[in-house]
């Protein structure tokens, strides 16, 4: 015979927090219209080079993400939005990997469609404006790729 046992409130609260951690975090890719709205500049160009450096967040060997900060050197073939007088532009984006113990905390994922050398892509860029991730620190004149899917490879 199964007895009807009462579940403690503390267990239900803990369970709801556990469930919340797995349902919140990843940002859905933006639609083309959303990318066009967020972007201050849209360019099509060929990637000449990709430069990167790694940095660590959190306490070494215990928690945190390892970020791979990247800059792609792009030779512009066409400007679809905004004004850019240069023929070469440097665009910023990143990827990250969880290096901590246990499961990663909720939060954003790496950019989709990481460009490769000699690849032609459409770049949705944000300069001195919100880039889909944050407004903070985006007023330095650089071009940030719109987070999360602001890089669209073009098949030729």
**What is the CATH-assigned architecture?**
Beta Barrel
CA radius of gyration: 20 Å
Summed up, the domain count is: 1
Q: Roughly what percent helix?
A: 10-25%
Poorly predicted regions are 11-24
By DSSP, the count of extended strands is: 6
Give helix and strand order, one letter per element, not per position. HHEEEEEE
Summarize the structure.
The chain is mainly β.
Describe this structure in words.
- By secondary structure, the protein is mainly β.
- The protein has helices spanning about 10-25, 30-40; strands spanning about 40-55, 65-80, 90-100, 120-125, 145, 150-155.
- The chain has a single domain (about 30-155), classed as Beta Barrel (OB fold (Dihydrolipoamide Acetyltransferase, E2P)), CATH 2.40.50.
- About 15% of the residues lie in helices and about 35% in strands.
- A five-stranded mixed beta barrel has the order 1-2-3-5-4.
- Strand 2 and strand 3 form a beta hairpin.
- The longest helix has 15 residues, at about 10-25.
Question: What attributes characterize this protein structure?
Answer:
37% strand, OB fold (Dihydrolipoamide Acetyltransferase, E2P), mainly beta, 156 residues
Topology, element by element:
Layout lengths: L8 H15 L8 H7 L2 E16 L8 E17 L6 E11 L21 E8 L15 E3 L5 E3 L3
Parallel strand pairs: 3-5
Antiparallel strand pairs: 1-2, 1-4, 2-3, 4-5, 4-6
């Amino acid at each position: 015979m199964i007895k009807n046992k009462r579940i403690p409130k503390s267990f239900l609260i803990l369970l709801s927090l556990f469930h919340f951690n797995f349902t919140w975090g990843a940002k859905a890719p933006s639609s083309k219209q959303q990318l066009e709205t967020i972007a201050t500049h849209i360019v099509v160009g060929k990637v000449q080079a990709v430069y990167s450096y790694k940095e660590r967040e959190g306490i070494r060997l215990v928690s945190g993400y390892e970020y791979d900060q990247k800059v792609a050197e792009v030779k512009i073939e066409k400007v679809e939005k905004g004004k850019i007088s240069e023929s070469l532009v440097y665009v910023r984006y990143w990827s990250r990997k969880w290096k901590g113990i246990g499961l990663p905390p909720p939060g954003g994922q790496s950019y989709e469609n990481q460009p490769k050398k000699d690849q032609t892509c459409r770049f949705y860029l944000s300069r001195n404006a919100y880039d889909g991730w944050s407004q903070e620190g985006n007023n330095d004149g650089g071009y940030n790729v719109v987070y999360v899917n602001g890089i669209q490879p073009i098949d030729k």
